[in-house]
């Protein structure tokens, strides 16, 4: 049997160490510094429902509250992994440490506190702790505006905007497309556009956090009055945009007694409504550009008095003429 020289073994180990160190240095220069698996899975970065990072609201700024479900991980110490629910006083019992008060702390502050207690108790020399809030139970999300059931809804488990809107019974028929979300963490606001397109609505979905406020505004309305098929108010559905011809079409169009050249557009301004003449006949024929309407605009289409009077008299005249003709034929027959 042939034995390997100890000197050769030492030389081989030294060369292997140099190779590993060189490879690690190359990765570090390329910005590929490895992240411990536990730390990567426990990062408190906020993500929206479609997986995109939401940099505006880092979850680390959210504070732990009584009744919250907390997950605690200690790197390289699987036995210290725990998921606990805090009591009404905001306290929870952890292995080795015992009862610890975590309510009112951010996840970063809780990590530092738990790590300090593990070190001070001589359980670990340099503990690395990660804390994640699995479920919030102390706060909810306020939903107000054009929803069927306004109120406060819980976001335990990390619900998204669409989840909370579904819990609120969905939006009303008068709801606008621009939804405003005020973040509780930093009072910043975020506007989300909901569309009838399913893919676009899902891509606009965002994650919500305790204390957030959702405001669903009423959509802009325009009014079509006067001599039209069925006047009334109409919602500006196309992302808050509608033209004069589109509104007229929603009102069923003009009638045979409408006076096209006498139409008016009433537009609300700082000092009240202004009356703008509209050459509706030219717009319909394409001789003038269509008019972009604004919220609360009123389109008035007057009727032609002579046409209206003739429309009332004509049936009677026609009926009388028809009756006279019938009588003349009868007399001629006899």
Q: What is the structure about, briefly put?
A:
The chain is 29% helix and 24% strand.
Per CATH, what is the topology of the largest domain?
Outer membrane lipoprotein wza fold like
Identify the CATH homologous superfamily of the largest domain: Outer membrane lipoprotein wza domain like
Strand content: 15-25%
| Strand numbers in spatial order across the main sheet | 7-6-10-8-9
Helix content: 25-40%
Largest sheet: 5 strands, mixed
CATH architecture of the largest domain: Roll
The count of strands amounts to 17
Please describe what this structure looks like.
The protein is of the alpha+beta class and 334 residues long. It folds into three domains: 63-135, wza like domain (wza like fold), CATH 3.30.1950.10; 140-216, Outer membrane lipoprotein wza fold like (Roll), CATH 3.10.560; 223-306, Outer membrane lipoprotein wza domain like (Outer membrane lipoprotein wza fold like). 29% of the residues lie in helices and 24% in strands. It has eight helices and 17 strands. A five-stranded mixed beta sheet has the order 7-6-10-8-9, with helices on one face. The protein has a five-stranded mixed beta sheet with strand order 12-11-17-14-15, covered by helices on one side. A three-stranded antiparallel beta sheet has the order 2-1-5, with helices on one face. The radius of gyration is 36 Å and the shape is rod-shaped. The N and C termini lie far apart (145 Å).
């Amino acid at each position: 049997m042939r034995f390997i020289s100890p000197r050769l073994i030492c030389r081989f180990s030294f060369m292997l160490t140099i190779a590993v160190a060189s490879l690690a240095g190359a990765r570090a220069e390329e910005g590929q510094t490895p992240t411990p698996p536990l730390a990567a899975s426990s990062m408190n970065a906020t993500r929206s429902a479609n997986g995109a990072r939401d940099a505006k609201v880092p979850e680390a700024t959210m504070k732990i509250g009584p009744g919250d479900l907390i997950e605690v991980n200690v790197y390289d110490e699987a036995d210290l992994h725990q998921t606990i629910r805090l009591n009404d006083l905001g306290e929870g019992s952890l292995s080795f440490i015992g009862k610890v008060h975590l309510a009112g702390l951010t996840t970063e502050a809780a990590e530092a506190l738990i790590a300090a207690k593990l070190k001070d108790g001589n359980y670990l020399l340099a503990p690395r702790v990660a804390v994640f809030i699995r479920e919030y139970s102390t706060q909810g999300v306020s939903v107000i505006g054009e929803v069927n059931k306004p109120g406060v809804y819980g976001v335990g488990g990390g619900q998204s905007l669409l989840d909370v809107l579904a819990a609120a019974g969905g939006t009303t028929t008068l709801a606008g497309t621009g939804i405003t979300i005020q973040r509780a963490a930093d009072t910043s606001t975020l506007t989300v556009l909901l569309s009838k397109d399913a893919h676009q609505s899902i891509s606009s979905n965002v994650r919500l956090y305790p204390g957030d406020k959702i405001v669903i505004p009423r959509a802009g309305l325009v009014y079509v009055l006067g001599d039209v098929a069925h006047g009334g108010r109409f919602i500006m559905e196309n992302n808050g945009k509608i033209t004069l011809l589109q509104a007229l079409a929603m009102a069923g169009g003009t009638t045979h007694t409408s006076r096209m050249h006498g139409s008016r557009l009433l537009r609300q301004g700082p000092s009240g409504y202004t009356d703008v003449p509209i050459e509706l006949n030219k717009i319909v024929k394409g001789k003038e550009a269509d008019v972009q309407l604004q919220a609360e605009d009123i389109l008035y289409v007057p009727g032609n008095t002579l046409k209206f009077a003739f429309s009332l008299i004509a049936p009677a005249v026609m009926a009388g003429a028809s009756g006279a003709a019938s009588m003349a034929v009868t007399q001629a027959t006899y």
